[in-house]
């Protein structure tokens, strides 16, 4: 069981060293100067990138994980893949979502289809590390790591694959956005040549959206991306004995409206000369001279507007939706937002020396879709992500719609959310909410709220299960998951806080407000569509309230933690999932607008009243 992993290597011994030399000579003698992004990822760069994926501004990783999580089962069912090839597998963290779906029992207990997994990467250490873990986690799965540069060596793959069933090639993380149009076309042509009829491609890409969301994702407030950008200079200093003064370069991130890509650059803060000893090369930088280090292209779907519609006169306008809306304001940075991505422990950059091999880790990371805004439930394992492009599933921009389907027509959930926004804002005026914001709320009042909300949540979980019972097949898993996530994560939040506030969760008895709300919800949930509409005020409303409160930066630590939990983008994602199911239900005629609106409105009233909770008698 513990036989060592065999890595198939297709990289000539000095491949990476030679590639780095060639790229640096070419890039630094070009005008304007440029360096390819693949050299960011030595060990320190990889850690910095991991940190980027947890930044509040960097939505792509969370979005992609969320999508993968929601759709992996569907991908497994549609492709029936016998082999999963992953290009630029890196730590293969999100891959587990696919592996689990492809190896677990399928719908109706159909047998698992996946027999082997071929991660392809230029980092042997990354291949060994993740491969070894996967062998343990997925007994019976053949893991066959391939050390190769997928931008030039896709031709080696067909020989490694016995023709025993369809192959799924996954290229996630939005890494394809690093390729400019010409090399991108070449890469896709190579990929096509290495693909047989009946094979599948799962491509994760980020979509064009409001630059007010895009730019901060590449220019975060904490300066992590700036450090990541400058890291390429450290790599060259170390690997090629150069003398870049790293601190004399500033990070620049720009949205190129015409190309629809983000450009990262390093700007020389003064005139300076740099010597690269191993290349016998000396180059000068003028004061203010900029060198491009990365493009990250964003895409549009063929079938619908993402942001803004392709024929829109301007790419620079503000968000198209009002501030309370569910979708496009996504990553508007949420001050108190906790970075909860349970799968990634917080790792600090170590600055440890890096084995040369690792120097060029081409990781697939990233993006996809838009980060929603607005939900109450926390996701158990952060969120997955990637969007099948070749799979014929609807793609995220089409779903993203909460922004608006069919030429800008808002969806039902969007109409509801727009309509409900004032009522959520009105909650800010409630004395209890004010007390949370100011930090001087009587802990006794909060304790009662906590006990009541705990009792509320128990029934809330039952609402999800009641909806799951009626759900169309494609949403059954989603609703079971929402039930579980609420039961597991949110109730643990309450249990943790109960200890701090001396609340008695077990002995508490429902008060009238709580009873009225839960009775209403449980009744509404007897009808699938109505039930989903009734859930929205709680899921989306709490997320919005959390974000509004986070902006006020509550000072009392216990309240601040509570606020951060609800302001967390992961809660927002759960609300988005609920909204999508509602929209599906509406489209398929399971609910009409009038009854959804009535249920939504009534739930909103209960939300406000819930701030008055007290115990009977
Ligand atoms: C890993 C290339 C997809 O373009 O978003 C993150 C890299 N650069 N922040 C991206 C990146 C700056 C990332 N990719």
By CATH, the architecture of the largest domain is named: 3-Layer(aba) Sandwich
Number of helices: 19
Question: Ranges with pLDDT <50 over ≥5 residues?
Answer: 303-409
Largest sheet: 7 strands, parallel
Helix and strand composition category: alpha/beta
Assign an overall shape: globular
Q: Assign a percent range to the helix content.
A: 40-55%
Provide the β-strand percentage band: 5-15%
* Rg result: 25 Å
CATH H level of the largest domain: which superfamily?
Vaccinia Virus protein VP39
What is the highest CATH level, the class of the largest domain?
A: Alpha Beta
Bound molecules: N,N,N-trimethyl-histidine
Number of domains: 3
| Average of per-residue pLDDT values | 80
The number of distinct β-strands equals 12
Q: Would you give the CATH topology of the largest domain?
A: Rossmann fold
Distance, first to last CA: 64 Å
Question: How would you sum up this structure, described in words?
Answer:
- The protein is of the alpha/beta class.
- It folds into 3 domains: 15-51 and 211-297, no CATH class; 53-209 and 298-347, Rossmann fold (3-Layer(aba) Sandwich); 412-616, Heme Oxygenase, Chain A.
- It has 19 helices and 12 strands.
- Helix 11 crosses helix 16 (528-551) and helix 13 (443-470) runs parallel beside helix 15.
- The longest helix has 29 residues, at 473-501.
- The radius of gyration is 25 Å and the shape is globular.
- Residues 303-409 have low confidence and may be disordered.
- The protein binds N,N,N-trimethyl-histidine.
- Residues 52, 60, 173-175, 177-178, 218, 225, 294, 296, 365-367 line the site of N,N,N-trimethyl-histidine.
- N,N,N-trimethyl-histidine is lined by residues 52, 60, 173-175, 177-178, 218, 225, 294, 296, 365-367.
């Amino acid at each position: 069981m513990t036989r060592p992993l065999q890595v198939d290597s297709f990289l000539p011994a000095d491949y990476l060293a030679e590639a780095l030399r060639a790229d640096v000579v070419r890039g630094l003698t070009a005008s304007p100067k440029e360096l390819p992004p693949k050299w960011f990822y030595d060990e320190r760069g990889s850690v910095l990138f991991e940190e980027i994926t947890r930044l509040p501004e960097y939505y792509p990783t969370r979005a992609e994980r969320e999508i993968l999580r929601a759709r992996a089962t569907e991908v497994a069912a549609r492709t029936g893949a016998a082999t999963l090839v992953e290009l630029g597998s890196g730590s293969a963290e999100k891959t587990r979502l696919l592996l689990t779906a492809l190896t677990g029992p399928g719908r109706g207990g159909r047998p698992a289809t996946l027999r082997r997994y071929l991660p392809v990467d230029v980092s042997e250490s990354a291949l060994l590390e993740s491969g070894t873990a996967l062998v343990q986690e997925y007994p019976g799965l053949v893991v066959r790591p391939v050390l190769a540069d997928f931008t030039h060596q896709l031709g080696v793959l067909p020989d490694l694959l016995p023709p025993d069933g369809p192959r799924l090639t996954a290229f996630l993380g939005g890494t394809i956005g690093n390729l400019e149009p010409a090399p991108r076309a070449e890469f896709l042509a190579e990929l096509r040549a290495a693909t047989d009829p009946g094979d599948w491609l799962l491509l994760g890409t980020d979509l064009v959206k409001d630059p007010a969301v895009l730019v901060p994702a590449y220019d975060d407030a904490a300066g992590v991306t700036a450090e990541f950008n400058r890291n390429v200079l450290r790599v060259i200093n170390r690997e090629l004995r150069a003398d870049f003064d790293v601190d004399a370069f500033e990070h620049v991130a720009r949205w190129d409206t015409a190309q629809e890509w983000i450009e990262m650059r390093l700007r020389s803060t003064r005139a300076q000369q740099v010597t690269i000893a191993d290349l016998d090369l000396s180059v000068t930088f003028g004061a203010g001279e900029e060198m491009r280090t990365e493009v990250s292209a964003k895409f549009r779907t063929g079938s619908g507007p993402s942001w803004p519609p392709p024929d829109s006169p301007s790419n620079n306008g503000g968000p198209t939706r009002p501030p309370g809306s569910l979708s496009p304001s996504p990553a508007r940075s949420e001050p108190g937002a906790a970075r909860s991505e349970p799968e990634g422990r917080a790792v600090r950059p170590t600055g440890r020396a890096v084995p040369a091999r690792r120097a060029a880790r081409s990781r697939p990371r990233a993006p996809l879709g838009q980060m929603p805004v607005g939900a109450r439930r926390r996701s158990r394992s952060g969120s997955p992500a990637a969007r099948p492009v070749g799979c014929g599933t609807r793609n995220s921009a089409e779903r993203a719609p909460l922004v608006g389907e069919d030429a800008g027509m808002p969806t039902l959930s969007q109409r509801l959310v727009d309509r409900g926004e004032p009522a959520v804002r009105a909650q800010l005026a409630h004395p209890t909410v004010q007390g949370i914001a100011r930090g001087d709320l009587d802990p006794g009042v909060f304790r009662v709220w906590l006990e009541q909300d705990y009792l509320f949540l128990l029934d809330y979980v039952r609402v999800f299960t009641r909806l799951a019972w009626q759900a169309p097949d494609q949403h059954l898993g989603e609703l079971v998951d929402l039930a579980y996530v609420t039961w597991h994560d949110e109730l643990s939040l309450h249990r943790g806080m109960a200890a701090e506030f001396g609340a008695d969760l077990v002995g508490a008895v429902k008060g009238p407000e709580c009873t009225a709300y839960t009775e209403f919800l449980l009744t509404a949930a007897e009808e699938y569509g109505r039930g989903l509409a009734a859930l929205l005020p709680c899921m989306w409303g709490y997320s919005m309230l959390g974000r509004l409160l986070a902006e006020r930066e509550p000072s009392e630590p216990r309240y601040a933690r509570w606020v951060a939990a609800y302001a967390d983008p992961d809660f927002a994602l759960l609300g988005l999932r609920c909204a999508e199911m509602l929209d599906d239900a509406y489209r398929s005629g399971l609910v009409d607008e009038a009854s959804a609106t009535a249920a939504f409105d009534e739930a909103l009233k209960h939300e406000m009243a819930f701030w008055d909770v007290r115990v009977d008698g």
